[in-house]
Amino acid sequence: MLHEQIKEQVKEAMLAKDPVKVTTLRSIVAACMNELVAKKRKPQEVLSDEEVLDVIRRSVKQRKDSIDQFTKGGRPDLADGEIAELRVLEVYLPTMMSLEEIRTVAQAKKLEMGEVDKSKMGQFMGAVMKDLKGKADGADVMTVIEEMFQ
User: Fold this and answer.
1) Do 93 and 60 form a contact (C-beta atoms < 8 A)?
2) Residue 135: its pLDDT value, please?
3) Which domain holds residue 22?
4) Are residues 54 and 85 both part of a single domain?
5) What letter would DSSP give residue 131?
6) Averaged confidence pLDDT in the chain
7) Same domain for 62 and 14
8) pLDDT in tens, 70-120
9) Per-residue pLDDT tens over the stretch 6-15
10) 3-state helix, strand, coil in the chain (%, to 5)
11) Do 22 and 79 reside in the same domain of the chain?
């Protein structure tokens, strides 16, 4: 189980005296605990791997937003810290699909749905995202779909 694996890696990072990894992994363990509480489950329980990946994806998104904000705000020192944490988190995520792979899936979905005009772009985006959940970055999917409707 990924949840237990991350808990063990916190200990390993502490022994290795890797403060960035310790802080990042502890934040994930805490976020998993919060997820358990939010789902009205006992804190001793363990999240499924998919649930842990959802927690990690949210953390990655938060880190990316922070990096963007710190960069725009002229604080590269703070952005560097977020980048280091992001690198630790990305190890746990599955490899994302390339733009070409996304394009192939989107074109297949477009054939399946029939003629899709620009007014139904949101519905089309939702359908493609449902097929690619966890396999592709939302921004990449949006880029491909916008290209298709130009």
Assistant:
1) yes
2) 81
3) 2-90
4) yes
5) H
6) 89
7) yes
8) 999 999 999 999 999 999 998 998 888 888 888 888 888 888 887 777 777
9) 999 999 999 9
10) 75, 0, 25
11) yes
**What values do phi and psi take at 40, rounded to 5?**
55, 45
Tokens of 92: 């746990």
Binned at pLDDT 50, 70 and 90, residue 28 comes out as very high
Provide the number of structural domains found in the chain: 2
CA distances from 25 to 5, 75, 85, 115 (A): 10, 24, 9, 46
pTM over 0.70: yes
Dihedral sign for Cα atoms in the order 15, 19, 21, 26: positive
Provide φ and ψ at 134, rounded to 5°. Answer: 80, -5
Within this chain, do residues 120 and 58 fall inside the same structural domain, yes or no? no
CB 90 within 8 A of CB 137: no
Class of residue 143 by CB neighbours under 10 A (exposed 0-12, middle 13-18, buried 19+): middle
Contact by Cβ (8 Å): 102, 144: yes
